[in-house]
């Protein structure tokens, strides 16, 4: 029964909505399109959120709480409408109102574009942190880039990835507010010279090219509270065209050229994951959002602190998310010295005490380096400052730490005529951290060992986390309701409370519902698969899922070769007992990453072979879902039985999809890598399936040699058969996979796929035997949900607050 207040709320909502439809479309509800229906709902929701937003901002101006600004070149925020509705506690009202108006709520939600302003885990992490901070009521803002085109849309045509540009702003975007009055000018190119002004040496910057940075602010709303923080995304625009025309003495063509060159800076997101680009435009992007963001933060700080910057670092933390915003160091020095007139030493103290740095990868190809010439040309003043930071740093190593020249050059920010951005970030920050225990250990012992020996106190570890609101509560509502009915609502804000679920481990009625929910989620995903790929899958089969960026180190290839092997076994022995499996893959490959695209093609070739072979009797199905993004993830994670986390040990810094799957009751099948190790510790060895080389073993082979993929090949006939199939025409018109064959056999299998193959096979067999014991499987799944508390991004954010920003 609905209470009178609730009934009134629904009626009020309905009339507001009917009116809003007319405003956005100029039509009556009955004639409105789905898009208009979405726009109307979005506007109503945004109005409510904006009221709380204004209030939060005003409150922050009066309380002296330390603010944190996350600088990141990516924020992979996902769709927002449902998040806002649920966090406002409007879910029931909106659902009922839509229903009573004869509208389909899900169809309306599906009109929203999913802004692809990030590549994968790194950008998604920032979105999770922002959501958690708002839910915890902490003053915590994001600073990034307003890309006009996000990550490309992936289509699969003839088994291959085809990239289509992503125009997420096509229909407008209702959740951002453009703030032209908070624009700033960012300067590129030009010349620097010294001048004596009143006896002091000052730098004069001339002939530069000014670009206007215009902020777009998005509200980040806390769950069931009234905190609304901001994500500020900067868009590059030409200076006022009139000014420019007069500046260029009426040269219209030049003015137009300037316009498109300015806009180019924020046109596209670079579609690389774990790879450093090295392009001038990328460096421009990095400086652009760092410069604009810092200028605004510093000027706002002055406004509220009587123009005094002395205690800036006590009140503000600037966080460098991976090396892309590492120019925060020299840019802050520039602002404090050139614009604010501070001395080098005073500026340095404030800069270093404000900055903190998180490293996200140890893959060498992802560690950014910029040619000195490029930096000097594009941002000459910044280059001068980097040189001076490096000179002083070298000097202190020589005098205070007593290092020799060889040791100093190994730690230098400038090496081989390149700026090493990780070194720059470390030298300019007071804290450096990795994103899981193993990763942080590798940073200390290997990647940044030289720095660790000098400043052990600067190094920390904070394991990543994910927001349970998006990745459990809003995307798996049936499980949410079961949990809440069983243990109350406290877990939503304190995920450790899920441990109380262990009380139900012997409760049959609970177990039945828990398993039914998983089945229902699998049915939902099956419908999606049918609709997208025209493949019918069996929801009773094991859903074995690997969804993430396609990369050699993540080893989708190992998974695919295992499927091919199973197929061979079934063909050789069609009557064997076989537990049906559905292998689901999704993920984008960087457009320039040939090998990753070949892996996608191979998965699709295997799918075609296996799915259409009558001898298999539908016992194996292989599905590659196109265009993996946050929204697709929200359908996939709740439907998984097995979470494939099979990176070569030591290569995956943390992983976060492992956590999303776990929260939704999937069993991890993984290597001892990244946060998998901590999942292992949390659930216990009985409730996870692990295999493969350890990170130490991998490092040993890499350093000492001793691994020969040919030897493994020669001693294993299953592997021989699979390898031949890659090149013998097995895949018909989809062709051969010579490059994959060569990488494994000719180039000795850099990622230890053949080395780990047998061990992986064994792990997969263990899964089969466990799955047959329904009680055991339920128990394992329950452990995974119950012990996922520590993988909440609430915990991660609080860890940063305690260990790194020292705000609590
Ligand atoms: C969580 C997430 C990722 C990260 O997945 P990993 O398996 O940790 O690499 C990538 N993309 C999207 C869309 C995600 O939601």
Question: What portion of residues is helical?
Answer: 40-55%
Query: Structural class of the secondary structure composition?
Result: alpha/beta
Oligomer: single chain
Biggest beta sheet summary: 10 strands, mixed
Q: Output the CATH topology of the largest domain.
A: Rossmann fold
Q: Any idea what the CATH superfamily of the largest domain is called?
A: Glycogen Phosphorylase B
Query: So how many helices?
Result: 33
User: Quick one: CATH class of the largest domain?
Assistant: Alpha Beta
Low-pLDDT ranges: none
Rg, nearest Å: 27 Å
Bound molecules: pyridoxal-5'-phosphate
Please count the beta strands (DSSP E, at least 2 residues each): 23
Portion in strands: 15-25%
> pLDDT average, as an integer?
96
CATH architecture verdict of the largest domain? 3-Layer(aba) Sandwich
For the record, the count of structural domains works out to: 3
* Termini separation: 44 Å
Shape: globular
Describe this structure in words.
This protein has 808 residues and is of the alpha/beta class. It has 3 domains: 97 residues, no CATH class; 331 residues, 3-Layer(aba) Sandwich (Rossmann fold); 324 residues, Rossmann fold (3-Layer(aba) Sandwich), CATH 3.40.50.2000. Helices cover 49% and strands 15% of the residues. The chain has 33 helices and 23 strands. Strands 1, 2, 5, 6, 9, 10, 11, 12, 16 and 17 form a 10-stranded mixed beta sheet that branches. The two termini are 44 Å apart. The relative contact order is 0.09. It binds pyridoxal-5'-phosphate (PLP).
């Amino acid at each position: 029964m609905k209470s009178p207040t609730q009934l009134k709320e629904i009626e009020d909502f309905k009339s507001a909505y009917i009116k809003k439809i007319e405003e956005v479309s100029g039509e009556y509800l009955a004639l409105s399109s789905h898009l208009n229906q979405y726009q109307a709902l979005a506007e109503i929701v945004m109005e409510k959120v904006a009221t709380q937003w204004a209030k939060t901002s005003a409150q922050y101006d009066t309380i002296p709480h330390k603010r944190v600004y996350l600088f990141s070149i990516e924020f992979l925020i996902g769709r927002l409408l449902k998040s806002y509705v649920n966090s406002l506690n409007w879910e029931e009202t909106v659902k009922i109102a839509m229903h009573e108006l004869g509208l389909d709520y899900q169809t309306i939600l599906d009109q929203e574009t999913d802004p692809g302003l990030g590549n994968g885990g790194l950008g998604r992490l920032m979105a999770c942190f922002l959501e958690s901070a708002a839910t915890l009521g902490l003053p915590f803002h994001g600073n990034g880039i307003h890309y006009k085109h996000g990550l490309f849309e992936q289509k699969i045509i003839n088994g291959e990835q085809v990239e289509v540009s992503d125009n997420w702003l096509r229909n407008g975007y209702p959740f951002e507010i453009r703030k032209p009055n908070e624009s700033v000018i960012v300067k590129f190119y030009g010349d620097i010279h010294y001048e004596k002004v009143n006896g002091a040496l000052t730098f004069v910057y001339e002939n530069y090219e000014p670009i206007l940075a215009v902020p777009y602010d998005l509200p980040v709303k806390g769950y069931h509270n009234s905190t609304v923080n901001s994500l500020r995304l900067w868009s590059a625009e030409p200076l006022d065209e009139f000014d420019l025309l007069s500046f260029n003495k009426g040269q219209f063509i030049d003015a137009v050229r300037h316009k498109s060159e300015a806009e180019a800076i924020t046109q596209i997101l670079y579609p690389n994951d774990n790879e450093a680009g090295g392009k001038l435009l990328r460096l421009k992007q990095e400086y652009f959002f760092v410069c604009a963001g810092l200028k605004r933060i510093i000027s706002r700080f002055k406004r509220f602190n009587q123009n005094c910057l002395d205690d800036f670092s006590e009140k503000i933390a600037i966080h460098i998310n991976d090396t892309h915003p590492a120019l925060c160091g020299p840019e802050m020095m520039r602002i404090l010295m050139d614009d604010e007139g501070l001395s080098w030493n005073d500026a340095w103290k404030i800069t270093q005490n404000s900055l903190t740095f998180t490293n996200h990868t140890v893959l060498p190809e992802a560690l950014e380096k910029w040619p000195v010439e490029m930096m000097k040309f594009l941002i000459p003043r910044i280059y001068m400052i980097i040189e001076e930071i490096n000179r002083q740093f070298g000097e202190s190593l020589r005098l205070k730490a007593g290092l020799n020249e060889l040791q100093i050059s190994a730690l230098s920010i400038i090496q081989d005529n390149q700026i090493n951005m990780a070194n720059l970030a470390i030298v300019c920050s007071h804290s450096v951290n990795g994103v899981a225990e193993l990763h942080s250990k590798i940073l200390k012992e290997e990647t940044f060992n030289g720095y660790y020996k000098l400043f052990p106190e600067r190094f920390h570890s904070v394991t990543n986390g994910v927001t349970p609101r998006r990745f459990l509560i809003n995307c798996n509502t049936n499980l949410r309701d079961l949990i809440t009915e069983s243990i109350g609502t406290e877990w939503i804000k304190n995920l450790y409370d899920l441990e109380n679920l262990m009380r139900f481990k012997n409760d049959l009625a609970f177990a039945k519902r828990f398993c039914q929910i998983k089945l229902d989620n699998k049915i939902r995903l099956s419908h999606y698969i049918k609709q997208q790929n025209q493949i019918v899958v069996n929801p009773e089969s094991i859903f074995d899922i690997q969804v993430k960026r396609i990369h050699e180190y993540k080893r989708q290839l190992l998974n695919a070769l295992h499927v091919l092997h199973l197929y061979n076994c079934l063909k050789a022995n069609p009557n064997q007992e076989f537990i049906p499996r559905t292998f689901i893959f999704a993920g984008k490959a960087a457009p320039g990453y040939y090998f990753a695209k070949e892996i996608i093609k191979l998965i699709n070739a295997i799918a075609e072979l296996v799915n259409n072979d009558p001898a298999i009797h539908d016992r194996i199905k292989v599905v590659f879902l196109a265009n993996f993004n946050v929204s697709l993830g929200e359908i996939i994670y709740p439907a998984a039985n097995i979470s494939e986390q099979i990176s070569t040990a030591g290569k995956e810094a943390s992983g976060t999809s492992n956590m999303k799957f776990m929260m939704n009751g999937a069993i991890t099948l993984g290597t001892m890598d990244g946060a998998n190790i901590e999942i292992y510790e949390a659930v216990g060895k009985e409730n996870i399936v692990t295999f493969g080389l350890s990170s130490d073993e991998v490092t040993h082979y890499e350093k000492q040699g001793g691994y020969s993929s040919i030897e493994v090949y020669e001693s294993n006939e299953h592997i021989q058969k699979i390898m031949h199939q890659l090149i013998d025409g097995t895949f018909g018109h989809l062709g051969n996979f010579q490059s994959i064959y060569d990488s494994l056999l000719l180039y000795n299998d850099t990622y230890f796929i053949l080395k780990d193959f047998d061990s992986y096979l064994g792990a997969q067999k263990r899964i089969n035997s466990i799955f047959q014991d329904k009680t055991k499987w339920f128990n394992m799944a329950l452990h995974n949900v119950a012990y996922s508390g520590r993988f909440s991004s609430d915990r991660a954010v609080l860890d940063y607050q305690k260990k790194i920003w020292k705000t609590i």
